[in-house]
Every structure is written in C-alpha cells, then in structure tokens.
Amino acid sequence: DQVDDYGRMTGALLARAHAHSADPRLLAGYCGKNCELDEAIAGFAVAYADRTEADHNELVRAVRAGRIGAEPGV
Length: 74
Hints:
By secondary structure, the protein is mostly helical. It is built from 3 helices and no strands. The protein has helices spanning 2-19, 24-31, 36-64.
C-alpha cells in the first residue's frame, strides 16, 4: 500500500511540475496548429506496437529453440 501511495504522490508531483514548467503559448507553438502532433503520436504508437510484436515473436522463437528458459502460459 505504501509503495502504491508513494508512486501516486510522486507521479502527481511530477505532473504538476511539468505543467508549470513552460509557457502554454510555447507548448502550443511546439505542438502545431493542425494534426501534426496527433499524427506523430499515432505514428510512434504504431511503430512501437510493431516493434513490441516483433520482439515478442523473437522471444517465442528463442524459448521454443531452447535458447531462453521460460514457463509458457504463466
């Protein structure tokens, strides 16, 4: 319970610090005025998902080949 409380508290403090760290106009300028930021974040998410899927497939192959020990289904 204490670790959970600590994580929530530090996360909230970090978010608050970041929220006050820059001028909102500067952030708005950085983000752009159209869908550029949305498209960049979506592109990153898709690439990250593809990389995660490829890494998982490689892990499964390594386990099946006996290069890495694992207990399937856990």
